[in-house]
Amino acid sequence: MGYRVRIEAFEGPFDLLLQLVARQKVDVAAISVTEVTDQYLAYVERMHELDLDVASDFLLVAATLLEIKAASLLPGEDHYVGEDIDDLSPEEARELLVARLVAYKQFKNVAVELAARMESVSHMHARQAGLEEPFVGLMPDYLEGLTLRGLAVICADLLHRREVFLLQAEHVAAAPISLELHTESVARTLARSGTVRFTELVGQDALPEVVVVTFLAILELYKCGRVLLRQDSLFDDIVVTACGPTEGT
Amino acid sequence: MEGDVRLRGAIEALLFVSDEPVSAARVAKILEADPGTVAKALEVLAEEYRDAERGFQLREAAGGWRLYTHPAYHDAIEQYVLSWDTRRLSQAALEALAVIAYHQPVTRAGINAVRGVNSEAVISSLVEKGLVREAGRDREAGNAILYTTTKAFLEKFGLKSLDELPPLEEFAPDERTEAAIRERLGGPARSFSADEDEASTAEADDIAEID
Amino acid sequence: MEGDVRLRGAIEALLFVSDEPVSAARVAKILEADPGTVAKALEVLAEEYRDAERGFQLREAAGGWRLYTHPAYHDAIEQYVLSWDTRRLSQAALEALAVIAYHQPVTRAGINAVRGVNSEAVISSLVEKGLVREAGRDREAGNAILYTTTKAFLEKFGLKSLDELPPLEEFAPDERTEAAIRERLGGPARSFSADEDEASTAEADDIAEID
Fold first, then answer.
1. Each residue of A201-242: pLDDT tens digit?
2. Which of residues 198-217 of A touch C (CB under 8 A)?
3. C158–B contact, CB cutoff 8 A
4. For C52-75, what is the HEC assignment?
5. How far is CA B104 from CA B111, B117, B182, in A?
6. C84 — pLDDT class (breaks 50, 70, 90)
7. I need a surface site. Which of A68, A225, C54, C112 has the fewest CB within 10 A?
8. Is the pLDDT of residue C49 over 90?
9. What is the pLDDT of residue A246?
């Protein structure tokens, strides 16, 4: 497969930017919302003659920066970056982001150390056996202050913990979206209906990651020659039509 | 020699976390060791603790080995337990009580399955406090003892019957858990009679399924 | 000598029944012994277990001493201990926890600012796990809730106190990495070129390597 986007590893825009700068240059200095949009559209137009590697990476950078900018533009919300990049000179904007990324990277590093510590401590077990018979009666009245609702919460949380544990044991973690799997699901929908709109594919109130992965899925299908894409005008819905061999429904 | 130390260490670790007497055969099975060697090692270990005048001892009782505190220090332990903060709730006891309240009648294995840890000592402390009692046996689970809450439990919380317990689904932290709770506790309303033998019917099956 | 053995035995017995770390001072008070002597005895005991390669060990954590099994035997007893709580924390949770640990007390906005992303859900899960708690309000930041780590955090991460957290400075990206980040974020040319060769320089490795 030509490109691969690890959505499950996405821990926020800083994390993603770090991953991206590890791979290639990212020109933040020149980024503005309209520019990102223009570039995106320009890229989509030239998509058929471009390497999809570049296109998908670009999309991610664009999404990242948009997220940073959106966060800094929202009134009353927490300002993740602190200032609006557009108000700064390119040099200032870059330095600001470098400082943020370096600070974030430091915590990312120490988080690795903490994880290692936690892992090694988790291999040591404290005694859970409780008291021996002769001492049990000496324990204070532990139920003082306990309410029925408190008891219900304890029981529900236990069941929850167990559910999560079993779920993870089955390797059916909910968070990551597999691009391969999602692409296959889109292919199957198409095999059934022939033509479908992008908005229908993602459904109402779709999570951003679902929109992204669905978009990547139709790009992948396009690359393999399994679908035709049509968008009549800017920001219009994308019409996806199945074509060619639709094997393995 | 190396292997001896390792086996001894593994046995000690196992006994340390164990909540109940464990037979030499069971230890051997868990550690994938030779039963004869394990039995011998257990005896040596018991002697070692005795000779070194440790604060704990290893004793064989009721068909298994278990670590106990040394009786010579029981006064000190009493002092210690009495000094425990009354308002510090023992999470283990609360959890076991909550599970019994909502899953009753339930076996020890059923409680363990929900809590994810062994609960024997905790259950006996609840029994001792008169909050939980033995109520018959689960015939389909090797005659395991079934536990229910007591009248004292109801009175403590001002309940007329167990039907008045707040519905557990309402407290589920997410939908998946809520569905799981509905599935497990759902079906016929929980109307537990004091009739001990009839207690182990449909609900006991549900419990067995969790194990 | 007799007295030493007795004190050691009593300490062992107390530790054996304790369900939380106990400070040397508390042990001394219960046993009516000299705090200095008890503190020393605890250290000697920890060493004794270590030297004899026991299956359990005595460790100082979260402001007290507590017995734990030796990690060498984790695999052997893992199944026996069964616990739902062995789940690892997610990357996001670890990052948020790290920020709270080093910046405490800190508001949600403070955590978000470092991580560059909304951390609300992650913080609630840390609170639910008992690793983080609310500790007052920041009057200067619109009464935002302040978060700190808990005792359980110290214990789960094997720290005696917060002073034992590894110094944050040691985890700062080195100058080369910082320079690489700066270089990669700069440059006037639109550089989404697929020129892989340019990207795979030493600096790229630096950044990637630390990930």
1. 888 777 777 787 788 888 888 877 888 888 888 778 899 998
2. none
3. no
4. CCCCEEEEEECCEEEEEECHHHHH
5. 10, 18, 15
6. low
7. A225
8. yes
9. 45
Integer Cα distance of B166 and A190 in angstroms = 47
CB contact under 8 A, B17 and C69: yes
For B17, the closest of C18, C31, C80 (CB atoms) is C80
Are C89 and A11 spatial neighbours (Cβ–Cβ below 8 Å)?
no
- What does the pLDDT look like over C159-187, one tens digit per residue? 999 999 999 999 988 888 888 777 776 54
Is B17 in Cβ contact with C77 (below 8 Å)? yes
CA distance B38 to B29: 10
Number of residues assigned to chain B: 211
B171 contacts: CB under 8 Å, gap ≥ 6: A149, A152, A153, A155, A156
Three state DSSP letters for C4-45? HHHHHHHHHHHHHHCCCCECHHHHHHHHCCCHHHHHHHHHHH
CA–CA min distance C210, chain B (Å): 36
Q: Which chains touch A (3 or more CB pairs under 8 A)?
A: B, C
Nearest residue to A62 (alpha-carbon basis) of A80, A40, A90, A81: A40
Q: Which of A107, A249, A235 is nearest to A184 (CA)?
A: A249
Q: What does the pLDDT read at residue B188?
A: 39
Closest by CA to A124, choosing from C157, B61, B7, B94, is C157
Q: Are C207 and C199 in contact (CB under 8 A)?
A: no
Query: C11-26 burial, b if ≥16 CB within 10 A, otherwise e?
Result: bbbbbbbbbebbbbeb
Q: How confident is the model at residue C85 (pLDDT cuts 50, 70, 90)?
A: low
pLDDT digits (tens, 9 = 90+) for B33-89: 999 999 999 999 999 999 999 999 999 987 799 999 999 999 999 999 888 865 455
